[in-house]
Sequence to fold (113 residues):
Amino acid sequence: MEECLFCKIVAGEIPGAIVHQDEHLVVFKDINPQAPMHVLIVPRRHIASLNDLTPEDDNLTGEMVRRAAALAKERGFADGYRTVFNCGAKAGQSVFHIHLHVLGGRAMTWPPG
Ligand code: AMP
Ligand code: ZN
Fold:
């Protein structure tokens, strides 16, 4: 996807503060952090939103969620962190390449608003 911001970060065409990468995922710091830890777990493959997932993506999304737990544990936040997939503009999705927000290091409130 030529015009996708996260595809460009994954490809190294735009700099990202990358904290982890592997065969399927790239993880980088959110440019506008909402907590002391705020990273985005992004699949290398372009998928616009959760609505576009297929059963073939089940392993990929499982890897994303388990990576969130691993990062929280590594950073000492395993006792309390927030994971968020915004889906659709109405829910606040602004980049249409799926990403899992992982936030930690402060108390979280509910409902999120
Ligand atoms: P969402 O609103 O759920 O689509 O999340 C998109 C997130 O991407 C926001 O939290 C932005 O702060 C973040 N973001 C936008 N541009 C960049 C960038 N160049 N590098 C890192 N994070 C970004
Ligand atoms: Zn993309």
